[in-house]
């Protein structure tokens, strides 16, 4: 008999144990080993059976057990000490507060929007790298004291649970989540009723959402839930599952995330007294409508025009793009978006065409019928970035059409390379070894990690014993998961005796785990099955592979790749050396990364924006074996792993895959396995451990998410806060003035031109050290000389007279004439030999511009 309603009843704790409630609800426990040990010590078997979930653990304890714990003075004292430690962590001044005390102009609060968050497997609100990155961002912000407020959606079924059929086909199930059984609290009004936000929908419908709060250390994470009374059935399903729908369903999710998210922030500040965010950071384009809501607030509350409000909003907005794959960007039909911002839903004072212009692909090669969420993110983001140096370069080329006339190198998209939250991903035993021998923790990693280069601090024998212990832990975990997977596939216990001997704690272990879009090439390792088989079964230097990953439910091509791999792993002769583990999640990852000796990554270059799984492996002493893409292109140094050669220029994808797979096999056989099995008389691989030490010492500090968040603070959040404060001054006069100035410049730019350029000062045969003098005569129409910057652009040229690596230097106003004409002059010292060229251009200039390319206007000679 099915229940008509389901809910979770939470335990009432004895007064002596009241602090356990706070400790269970603050997700710091997910990366703070002492707190986890406190909970696991209550009942280790029960702790494992509830999947290491403190809320579920407390709910599973009976009254007698709670009474016994309350009477245990030693345990009560440990609980109080843990609570006191948490309170110190939440209240003490940390790195960010030191920066503010040192005089740096930083925001009082930062809003961080993301469609998914991977914080702990207990809160399954993530699908892959984007969510894990968001979770690590919040955790590291908490550790540094950065005053971030996270905003997202609470999905009723999260992503999905993956299992396999007998023939290896992926099957998705969606276990329903009860918020009352999760480490969340609902935001309530002063009278105790649940607080809610509301959004008008077409046809007179209204979408309501409650706001749940997850405490991520010092960071509150606001999660909007549409499954609430007062919504019709369709509206209740808006937050039913992560990435579960397309079209209008996805648009409604993104409206709730962006528009509803801003309204949730206003609720949060009103009810808690928290400061209003000064900077808004949108993690990928899904939350882009937050900018439209903030524009609406300023138009309605401050009487600004759309253009003036847009400038005020842009100044304090940071946009991070995560995909170099156009297919990964959400695009909606203009007609569909019009239904939500036009007609009866039109925002007072804002025309629907103004909203549509934000996401319009009105550039060469664009589709005029669609609304592009990434394009809106870039137009609303005064500062934008990719997530690795290479991805920044790819993004500048990908979105160059938004800044016509400028070289892709000048497109205003910078990069902040991703990092990972080491307390989450470093195995507790590895962390304990680092703390004991090196005094190393996540906040001192940049200075203390060089201790790994001292073989007396941690000996080779100690390091090798630790690596074998972690590998053995992974083998045990993999066998358990493998057995469970085969049972779900219909195998009987009598068929599974081989699982007891699958994998080995003494064999070179290579890991590969990630989402399964085509470009990540899950099955590249299968291009030559016999070559792979010979590597796995080598009698002297065997290799074992542990593979995991989920395909999007609608991606049948990705599911076929999984099936192809699973069918190979099922073959009787290799199944002890290669396994596919279904339902890849944080819980699996936390044993997979530490236990692998090598982390494999073989995407189609340059389609990996950053990737972070290899970083997590590196922090545990793993070496990377990867295509030079994403972060690895930036930080590979020849001693921290291996770079798989790429067949650049080969357009036949099948041929390219064959070539790169062959290179992969060769590397594993001749270099990776050879070095792993090169042992001294003690059985220790000294040369291998040299690479491990080098990785931990030199790569370890770089891949920290604390480094990443500090980069965001200094390079993006701080400047955005200063720009926002400037334009949001009382009366918003600076925003009004900037909007009017831009309108004037755009309206008159067609009359701006370089009329004539003269040069002098160099001899007949120019030499290094000569001073080239340039004078440019220009026409500015109705613009004033102060509205523009006239630049001489110079550098080395190709045979086609294209300036390759160039420098742009301003020329000074020399003379003014009638009819808007002027002369600008300056000089350039020739500092390098070889072919040299220069040109002159005019660009807009205003103190409110974050980049000379911001308006996409340029007049070239």
TrEMBL record:
Domain DUF3417, residue spans: 13-123
Signal peptide residue numbers: none
Record InterPro entries: Agluc_phsphrylas, Glyco_trans_35, Glycogen/Maltodextrin_Phosph, Glycogen_phosphorylase_DUF3417, Pyridoxal_P_attach_site
Keywords: Allosteric enzyme, Carbohydrate metabolism, Glycosyltransferase, Pyridoxal phosphate, Transferase
SUPFAM superfamilies: UDP-Glycosyltransferase/glycogen phosphorylase
Domain of life of the organism encoding this protein: Bacteria
Catalytic reaction(s) noted: [(1->4)-alpha-D-glucosyl](n) + phosphate = [(1->4)-alpha-D-glucosyl](n-1) + alpha-D-glucose 1-phosphate
Swiss-Prot/TrEMBL cofactor(s): pyridoxal 5'-phosphate
UniProt-listed Enzyme Commission number(s): 2.4.1.1
Family as reported in the entry's similarity comment: Belongs to the glycogen phosphorylase family.
Annotated function: Phosphorylase is an important allosteric enzyme in carbohydrate metabolism. Enzymes from different sources differ in their regulatory mechanisms and in their natural substrates. However, all known phosphorylases share catalytic and structural properties.
PANTHER family, alphabetized: GLYCOGEN PHOSPHORYLASE
Protein name: glycogen phosphorylase
Source organism: Oerskovia merdavium
Source lineage: Bacteria, Bacillati, Actinomycetota, Actinomycetes, Micrococcales
Gene: glgP
């Amino acid at each position: 008999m099915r229940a008509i309603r389901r809910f979770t009843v939470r335990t009432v704790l004895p007064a002596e144990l009241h602090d356990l409630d706070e400790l269970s609800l603050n997700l710091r426990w997910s990366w703070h080993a002492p707190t986890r040990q406190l909970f696991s010590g209550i009942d280790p078997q029960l702790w494992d059976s509830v999947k290491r979930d403190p809320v579920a653990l407390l709910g599973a304890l009976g009254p007698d057990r709670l009474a016994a714990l309350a009477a245990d003075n030693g345990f009560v004292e440990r609980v109080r000490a843990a609570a006191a430690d948490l309170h110190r962590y939440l209240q003490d001044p940390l790195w960010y507060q030191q920066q503010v005390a040192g005089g740096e102009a930083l925001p009082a609060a930062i809003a961080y929007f993301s469609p998914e968050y991977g914080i702990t497997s207990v809160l399954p609100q993530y699908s892959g790298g984007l969510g894990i990155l968001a979770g690590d961002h919040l955790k590291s912000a908490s550790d540094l004291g950065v005053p971030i407020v996270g905003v997202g959606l609470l999905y009723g079924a999260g992503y999905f649970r993956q299992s396999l059929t007998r023939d290896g086909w992926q099957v998705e199930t969606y276990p329903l989540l009860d918020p009352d059984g999760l480490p969340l609290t609902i935001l309530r009004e002063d009278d105790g009723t649940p607080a809610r936000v509301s959004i008008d929908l077409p046809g007179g419908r209204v979408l309501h959402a409650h706001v749940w709060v997850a405490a991520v250390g010092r960071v509150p994470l606001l999660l909007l839930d549409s499954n609430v009374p007062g919504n019709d059935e369709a509206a209740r399903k808006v937050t039913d599952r992560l990435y579960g729908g397309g079209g209008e369903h996805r648009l409604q999710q993104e409206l709730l995330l962006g528009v509803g998210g801003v309204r949730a922030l206003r609720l949060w500040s009103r009810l808690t007294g928290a400061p209003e965010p000064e900077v808004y950071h949108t993690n990928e384009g899904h939350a882009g409508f937050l900018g439209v809501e903030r524009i609406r607030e300023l138009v309605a509350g401050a009487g600004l025009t759309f253009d003036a409000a847009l400038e005020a909003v842009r100044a304090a907005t940071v946009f991070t793009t995560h995909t170099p794959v156009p297919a990964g960007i959400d695009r909606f039909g203009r007609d569909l978006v019009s239904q939500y911002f036009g007609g009866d839903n039109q925002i007072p004072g804002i025309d629907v065409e103004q909203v549509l212009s934000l996401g319009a692909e009105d550039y060469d090669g664009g589709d005029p019928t669609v609304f592009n969420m990434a394009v809106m993110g870039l137009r609303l983001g005064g500062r934008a970035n990719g997530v690795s140096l290479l991805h920044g370069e790819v993004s500048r080329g990908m979105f160059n059409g938004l800044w016509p006339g400028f070289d892709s190198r000048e497109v205003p998209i910078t990069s902040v390379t991703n990092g990972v939250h080491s307390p989450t991903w470093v195995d507790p035993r590895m962390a304990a070894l680092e703390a004991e021998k090196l005094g190393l923790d996540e906040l001192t990693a940049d200075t203390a990690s060089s201790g790994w280069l001292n073989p007396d601090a941690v000996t080779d024998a100690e390091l090798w014993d630790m690596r074998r212990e972690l590998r053995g832990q992974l083998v045990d975990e993999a066998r358990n998961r493998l057995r469970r997977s085969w049972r779900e596939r219909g195998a009987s216990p009598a068929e599974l005796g081989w699982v007891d001997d699958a994998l080995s704690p003494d064999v070179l272990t290579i890991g590969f785990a990630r989402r399964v879009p085509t470009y990540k090439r899950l099955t590249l390792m299968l291009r030559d099955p016999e070559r792979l088989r010979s590597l796995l079964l080598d009698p002297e230097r065997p290799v074992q592979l542990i593979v995991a990953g989920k395909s999007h439910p609608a991606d049948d091509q990705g599911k076929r790749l999984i099936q192809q791999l699973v069918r190979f792993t099922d073959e009787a002769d290799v199944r002890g050396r290669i396994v596919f583990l279904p339902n890849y999640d944080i819980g699996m990852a936390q044993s997979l990364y530490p236990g692998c000796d090598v982390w494999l990554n073989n995407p189609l270059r340059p389609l990996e924006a950053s990737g972070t799984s290899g970083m997590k492996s590196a922090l545990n002493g793993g070496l990377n074996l990867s295509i030079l893409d994403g972060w690895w292109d930036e930080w590979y140094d020849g001693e921290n792993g291996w770079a798989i050669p790429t067949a650049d220029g080969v357009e036949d994808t099948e041929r390219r895959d064959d070539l790169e797979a062959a290179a992969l096999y060769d590397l594993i056989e001749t270099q990776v396995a050879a070095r792993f099995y090169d042992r001294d008389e003690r059985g220790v691989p000294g040369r291998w451990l040299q690479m491990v030490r080098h990785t931990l010492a030199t790569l370890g500090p770089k891949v920290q998410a604390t480094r990443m968040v500090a980069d965001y603070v200094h390079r993006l959040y701080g400047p955005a806060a200063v720009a926002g404060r400037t334009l949001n001054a009382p009366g918003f006069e600076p925003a009004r003035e900037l909007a009017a100035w831009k309108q004037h410049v755009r309206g008159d730019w067609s009359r701006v031109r370089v009329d004539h350029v003269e040069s002098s000062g160099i001899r007949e045969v120019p030499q290094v050290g000569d001073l080239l003098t340039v004078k440019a005569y220009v026409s500015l129409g109705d613009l004033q000389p102060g509205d523009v910057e006239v630049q001489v652009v110079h550098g080395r040229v190709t045979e086609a007279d294209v300036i390759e690596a160039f420098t742009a230097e301003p020329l000074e106003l020399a003379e003014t004439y009638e009819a808007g004409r002027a002369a600008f002059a300056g000089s350039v010292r020739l500092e390098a030999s070889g072919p040299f060229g220069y040109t002159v251009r005019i660009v807009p200039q205003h103190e409110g511009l974050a980049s000379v390319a911001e308006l996409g206007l340029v007049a070239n000679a």
